């Protein structure tokens, strides 16, 4: 047993996790993540979303999964393998993600525990019912009348489902303590180790997820074999062990060994989950080469294959990354799950390295993909997140499963509904992604109303209260509510987009630059620090290599990407032609109620043949007018509309 896993939480501290539970608990790290019991989101932008998530989204998921038979697949009286089974081959994973979200919710308060404990117990009993004596559990494979186990490693998703089962059980153990779900997950993990170990099937699952899950189980239980198996899966990948398929080996990241690749490619969610597992194994085994390889791949992916929103994956076909700079706005796929997965990876890299740019990446994807994906009432969602809607969205019936996961309005449910439970587990555990500590003090990475209570490594207590209406305004007030004697450091992230930020308090008043600002002093209870982040709207120009949006400009305000939505322009929404919009970048964007206005004209070219011209197309006369921009996350909430993020410049 390595020293790192021997010191895992189960062997060093009683369960449940005294921090209240954290999604990721590396034993070797630069920063120590605080748990849900140490960071309580009390309101504001994310508090509202957490509340809707717990009050509506989870119940909504439960309703649909019962209605469609995804939960009852586990208790089908005809037994595993019955022809009655319903849902896609990976529907078990959605039940597990919902369970994971419920588990994190129970960690947030006793009220939520009362609400969800009985659901968790009931679903756990159902899953245990479907588990084979050797630990295998999957309702799509392995029973009579069904395909035999592990006969479709490319698309069968068996290991992927097991991974999500393990993640749910880890969340339950950390927030509640060991319970029957953990027993089920351990038996399933033991089965995986026995079946895919050094002398077992010499391959990997087509959709990664088992890798980070096994590492987290190793961290929880102190069992080295789970870590070894995760490392084996990571190392096996990239050697073309999966059967060849029309999607090609890059789709499964089975084309190049993880440590030798230089960019993320293929199916975006698969690539990102694999990267999470690779970082997890790298930090636990001290494999700096692997850690640096994944960090470099992510860096290059951010620099060349990421939308302005932080979204990833530009091809509808294969739900995959495009080549460098293939980032079309009107065909943006940017699956919500890929946004969640990018945040998971950035968080792991932040903990491993302490570099604030990973918190910047989290902020971008949180406000512009994750916040966009879910409706205000928490019961409909985007699967793909386009950056340009050319034809008005159509309303979707609230009781109808949508088949149009590649675009359109937010829908209550899809045949492939991976994204909503993924967002649900993320929002339920969001407190675990905001604040860290190290030997010097505490670091705030994201700003929302929150109460923080933790202990420094030397045992001194620290309490902070964060008050802000960020990102509506950029004022963040941090009040010290508890402190031990002597100096310690409070580190605040200063976002990469900011210019002219100011910090004030007992330390005086000073300008601060993007990155981090560290205040080290003997704090006193009641003292306040005030961070002012100017939120004036600003132009953002694309790299000219992104051909699809060359000649366009976007506007951002603080962490928010803005968009033009037909609803906000003069004229009836179906008469507003956003595609003929031309923006005058000579007039600065003006702040307007959490959005902006810019100057522009609606100027369709005056031709009606083929849309190609021997010279610059002639244009009709049009008067400049004020174009209203709103945060992208708000679009498609006020009836049918068209929308665009990238706005063509007038030339
Ligand atoms: O294959 C399982 C999930 O469904 C993937 O992560 C998503 O991209 C969707 O295809
Ligand atoms: Zn998804």
UniProtKB/TrEMBL annotation:
Domain Non-reducing end beta-L-arabinofuranosidase-like GH127 C-terminal: 538-648
Listed Low complexity bias regions: 18-30
One Pfam family it belongs to: Glyco_hydro127C
Keywords (A to Z) from UniProt: Hydrolase
Organism for this UniProt entry: Salinactinospora qingdaonensis
Biased composition (Polar residues): 1-14
Hydrolase found in the keyword field: yes
InterPro entries reported for this sequence: 6-hairpin_glycosidase_sf, 6hp_glycosidase-like_sf, Beta-AFase-like, Beta-AFase-like_GH127_C, Beta-AFase-like_GH127_cat, Beta-AFase-like_GH127_middle
Domain (Non-reducing end beta-L-arabinofuranosidase-like GH127 middle): residue spans on this chain: 442-535
Region (Disordered): 1-30, 589-623
GO MF: hydrolase activity
Annotated ranges, domain Non-reducing end beta-L-arabinofuranosidase-like GH127 catalytic: 38-431
Protein's name according to its UniProt entry: Glycoside hydrolase family 127 protein
């Amino acid at each position: 047993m390595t020293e790192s896993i021997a010191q895992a939480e189960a062997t060093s501290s009683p369960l449940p996790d005294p921090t209240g539970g954290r999604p990721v608990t590396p034993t070797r790290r630069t920063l120590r993540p605080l748990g849900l019991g140490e960071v309580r989101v009390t309101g504001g932008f994310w508090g509202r979303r957490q509340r809707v998530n717990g009050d509506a989204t989870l119940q909504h998921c439960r309703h649909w999964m019962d209605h469609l038979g995804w939960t009852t697949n586990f208790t089908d009286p005809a037994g595993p393998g019955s022809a009655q089974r319903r849902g896609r081959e990976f529907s078990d994973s959605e039940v597990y993600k919902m369970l994971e979200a419920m588990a994190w919710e129970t960690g947030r308060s006793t009220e939520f525990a009362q609400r969800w404990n009985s659901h968790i117990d009931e679903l756990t009993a159902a899953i245990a019912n479907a588990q084979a004596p050797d630990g295998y559990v999957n309702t799509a494979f392995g029973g009579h009348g069904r395909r035999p186990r592990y006969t479709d490693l490319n698309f069968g998703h068996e290991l992927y489902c097991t991974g999500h089962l393990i993640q749910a059980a880890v969340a339950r153990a950390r927030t509640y303590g060991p319970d029957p779900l953990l027993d089920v997950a351990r038996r399933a993990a033991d089965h995986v180790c026995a079946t895919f170990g050094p002398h077992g099937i010499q391959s990997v699952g087509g959709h990664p997820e088992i890798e980070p899950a096994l590492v987290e189980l190793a961290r929880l239980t102190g069992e080295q074999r789970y870590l070894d198996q995760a490392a084996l899966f990571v190392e096996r990948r990239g050697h073309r062990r999966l059967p060849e398929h029309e999607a090609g080996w890059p789709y499964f990241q089975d084309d190049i060994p993880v440590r030798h690749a230089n960019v993320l490619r293929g199916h975006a969610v698969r690539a990102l989950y694999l990267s999470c597992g690779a970082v997890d194994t790298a930090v636990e085994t001290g494999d700096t080469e692997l850690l640096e390889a994944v960090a470099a791949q992510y860096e290059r992916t951010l620099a060349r294959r990421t939308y302005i929103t932080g979204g990833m994956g530009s091809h509808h076909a294969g739900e995959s990354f495009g080549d460098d700079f293939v980032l079309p706005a009107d065909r943006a796929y940017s699956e919500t799950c890929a946004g969640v997965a990018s945040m998971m990876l950035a968080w792991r890299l932040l903990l491993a390295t302490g570099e604030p740019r990973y918190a910047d990446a989290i902020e971008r994807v949180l406000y512009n993909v994750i916040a966009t994906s879910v409706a205000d009432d928490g019961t409909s969602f985007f699967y793909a997140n386009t950056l340009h809607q050319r034809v008005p969205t159509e309303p979707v019936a609230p009781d109808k499963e949508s088949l149009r996961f590649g675009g359109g309005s937010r829908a209550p449910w899809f045949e492939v509904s991976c994204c909503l439970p993924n967002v649900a587990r993320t929002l339920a555990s969001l407190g675990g992604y905001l604040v860290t500590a190290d030997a010097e003090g505490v670091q705030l990475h994201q700003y929302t109303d929150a109460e923080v209570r933790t202990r420094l490594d030397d045992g001194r207590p620290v309490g902070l209260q964060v008050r802000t209406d960020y990102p509506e305004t950029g004022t963040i007030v941090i009040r010290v509510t508890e402190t031990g004697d002597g100096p310690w450091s409070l580190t605040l992230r200063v976002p990469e987009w900011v210019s002219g930020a100011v910090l004030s308090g007992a330390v005086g008043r000073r300008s601060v630059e993007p990155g981090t600002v560290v205040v080290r002093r003997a704090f006193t209870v009641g003292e306040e620090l005030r961070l002012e982040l100017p939120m004036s709207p600003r132009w953002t120009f694309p790299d000219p290599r992104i051909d699809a949006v060359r000649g366009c400009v976007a506007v951002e305000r603080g962490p928010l990407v803005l968009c033009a939505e037909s609803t906000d322009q003069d004229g009836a929404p179906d008469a507003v032609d956003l595609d003929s919009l031309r923006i005058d970048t000579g007039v600065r964007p003006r702040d307007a109620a959490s959005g902006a206005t810019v100057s522009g004209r609606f100027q369709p070219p005056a031709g009606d043949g083929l849309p190609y011209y021997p010279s610059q197309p002639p244009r009709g006369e049009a008067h400049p007018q004020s174009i209203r921009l709103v945060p992208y996350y708000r679009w498609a909430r006020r009836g049918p509309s068209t929308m665009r993020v990238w706005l063509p410049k007038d030339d």
